[in-house]
């Protein structure tokens, strides 16, 4: 179940510092260079990332096989790390095969929590199952600072509560939230780094046509804008998410927002899917990202097609918007002046 990997390249203009400083929850100690110095670009190396999201093991009967395709491809490449963007598997005995396969990858690997990871357990159980010390965190790799966020909170009786045991099937304004403590942590974390930053979340912080972006997106984007306005370079350059099972991109206040498609399917509802309510993709979808501090952010995606009958053949109202691919993309960034 494979398709040809697709390659694409473009360039963005950015100036960053050199040095790798791993950190826990928002702690940075030293910086080797200022991102504004041209000479650092001569020494910088691209950061290469394997990205997969929304495998949905336990919901898609071939989820494990789709993950295997990704692990096989990632293992043949020289990557700095791989990351899964949420909706991975349930913290149950049935999920052991999924986490074992993930852990078979020999290099660095990171997790993002997705809402369906808490369908059959608490958030803490999902974190323990994945081996996550924190539900949101940050780390440095090369010249970049990566921020992993958790948009899995509900608002109930004025209190932000963790997702757990499928408690999040409530009205959209009260779910997919980022709690206020995390918003403040994000503000402090971005302030502490002199590197350019990439934010990774499960739910989208930009806009999406189906209206299911995180209700916290405005608060998050305010923190991003403030961080960018306080520096003489573009501090936050991109946000990546899964969750929505679409292949999309937007550009808001000089920040790129990439919505990465599911490895498996698009949820079309009863009567429209090739497998019950799921419009399955023929091939496993994932992407390889190349972040080059000298000027390039490149997404090498994968092209597939819907298993028949397709959403178009079933006359799904949103069929023209749907994609069974992750597009090759390259976007240009300019240094903030």
UniProtKB/TrEMBL annotation:
Protein name (Swiss-Prot/TrEMBL): 3',5'-cyclic AMP phosphodiesterase CpdA
Domain (Calcineurin-like phosphoesterase) ranges: 48-246
Pfam families: Metallophos
Lineage top rank: taxon: Bacteria
Keywords: Membrane, Transmembrane, Transmembrane helix
Keyword Lipoprotein set for record: no
Region (Disordered): 303-337
TM ranges: 12-33
InterPro entries: Calcineurin-like_PHP, Metallo-depent_PP-like, STPP_CPPED1
Gene3D superfamilies given in the database record: 3.60.21.10
Record bears the keyword Membrane: yes
């Amino acid at each position: 179940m494979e398709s040809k990997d697709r390659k694409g390249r473009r360039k963005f203009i950015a100036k960053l510092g050199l040095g790798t400083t791993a950190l826990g929850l928002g702690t940075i100690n030293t910086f080797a260079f200022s991102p504004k110095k041209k000479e650092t670009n001569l020494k910088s190396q691209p950061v290469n990332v394997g990205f997969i999201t929304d495998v949905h093991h336990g919901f898609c009967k071939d989820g494990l096989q789709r993950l295997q395709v990704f692990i096989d491809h990632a293992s043949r490449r020289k990557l700095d790390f791989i990351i899964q963007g949420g909706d991975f598997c349930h913290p149950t005995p049935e999920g052991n095969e999924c986490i074992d396969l993930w852990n078979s990858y020999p290099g660095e690997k990171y997790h993002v929590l997705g809402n369906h990871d808490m369908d059959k357990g608490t958030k803490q159980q999902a974190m323990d199952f994945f081996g996550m010390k924190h539900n949101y965190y940050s780390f440095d790799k090369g010249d970049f600072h990566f921020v992993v966020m958790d948009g899995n909170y509900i608002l109930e009786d004025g209190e932000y509560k963790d997702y757990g045991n499928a408690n999040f099937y409530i009205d959209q304004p009260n779910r997919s939230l980022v709690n206020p403590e995390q918003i403040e942590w994000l503000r402090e974390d971005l302030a502490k780094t002199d590197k350019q930053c990439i934010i990774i979340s499960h739910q989208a912080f930009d806009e999406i046509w189906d209206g299911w972006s995180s209700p916290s997106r405005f608060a998050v984007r305010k923190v991003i804008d403030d961080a960018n306005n306080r520096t003489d370079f573009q501090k936050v350059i991109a946000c990546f998410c899964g969750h929505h099972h679409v292949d999309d991109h937007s550009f808001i206040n000089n920040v790129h927002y990439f919505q990465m498609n599911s490895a498996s399917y698009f949820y079309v509802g009863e009567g429209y899917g090739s497998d019950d309510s799921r419009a399955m993709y023929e091939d496993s979808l994932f992407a390889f990202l190349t972040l080059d501090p000298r000027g390039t952010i490149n997404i090498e995606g994968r092209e597939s097609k819907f298993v028949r009958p397709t959403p178009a053949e079933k006359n799904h109202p949103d069929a023209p918007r749907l994609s069974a691919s992750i597009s090759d993309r390259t976007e240009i960034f300019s240094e903030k002046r």
